[in-house]
Amino acid sequence: MLNIVLFGPPGSGKGTQAEKIIDKYKLVHLSTGDMLRAEIAAATTLGLEAKTLMDKGELVPDAVVIGMIENKLAGNKTAGGFVFDGFPRTVKQAEALDALLEKHKAPIKVVLSIKVGEEELTRRILARGATSGRADDQNETIVKNRVVEYRTKTEPLANYYTAQGKLKDITGEKPVDEVFASLCHEIDKVNSNKGLTPSVP
Ligand code: AMP
Predict the structure, then answer these.
(1) N or C, which end of the chain is more exposed by having fewer CB within 10 Å?
(2) pTM above the 0.70 mark?
(3) pLDDT of residue 102
(4) Is residue 48 part of a domain?
(5) Which residues are catalytic?
(6) What range defines the domain where residue 21 resides?
(7) Domain count, the chain
(8) In this predicted structure, what is the pLDDT of residue 194?
(9) 106: CATH
(10) For residue 199, is pLDDT > 60?
(11) What is the pLDDT confidence band of residue 135, given thresholds at 50, 70 and 90?
(12) Ligand 1 neighbourhood includes 129 CB (under 6 angstroms)
């Protein structure tokens, strides 16, 4: 099973790259941000509670996102692997993910950390806000708060995965296809089945 974590601040291109990776390697995309937005759109209690935090650029409680991931893993038993996008975001979430994957005997193979500078992140998110319709992409104060949440609660995870020897840094301030090529290069190192691209005889 090919389990990959895409790690990086908001606006680093995780969502865009996740789509390309699942397409190439035939994996299942698990984005907790997308799941939470679906809950909001369906006006569930969970969605309404999450919305107040998301609108401020704060993280939702660990138990909420861990529960959502647990359900998705249980509901996708035949998947060839997962791309985790926007999860885990705290050390507690990372420990919970390791425990869940341990049950499936399918540990994370690689954690791809996409690096983008702060100024570029803010520029990208506000530009995305013009078309995404996401309230948390449109207000500079909220955007800055999301980056602060990332630096204080999520970035410490880099040490957690470095200690496991799984963290790979990727430069994110390049054209999408160049970033994708760097990601694939790292994925191919840990993947015995090199995606569906046929090799030249
Ligand atoms: P994203 O689409 O990944 O940028 O997530 C949008 C918002 O959803 C974040 O700013 C958080 O409020 C919330 N969120 C998404 N994933 C998580 C997570 N793993 N842990 C806590 N909050 C999350």
Answers:
(1) C
(2) yes
(3) 94
(4) no
(5) 14, 89, 128, 134, 146
(6) 3-27+79-116+167-194
(7) 1
(8) 58
(9) 3.40.50.300
(10) no
(11) confident
(12) no
d(CA 13, CA 177): 11
pLDDT of residue 173: 97
Counting ligand 1 atoms within 8 A of each CB, the residue from 32, 114, 152 with the most, and so the one to mutate, is: 32
Give pLDDT, residue 193.
58
Whether residue 199 lies inside any domain: the answer is no
10 Å CB burial of residue 100 (0-12, 13-18, 19+) is middle
Q: Is residue 162 part of a domain?
A: no
Tokens encoding 34: 């997308």
Ligand 1: residue whose CA is nearest its atom 2: 33
CB count, 10 Å around CB of 106?
Answer: 16
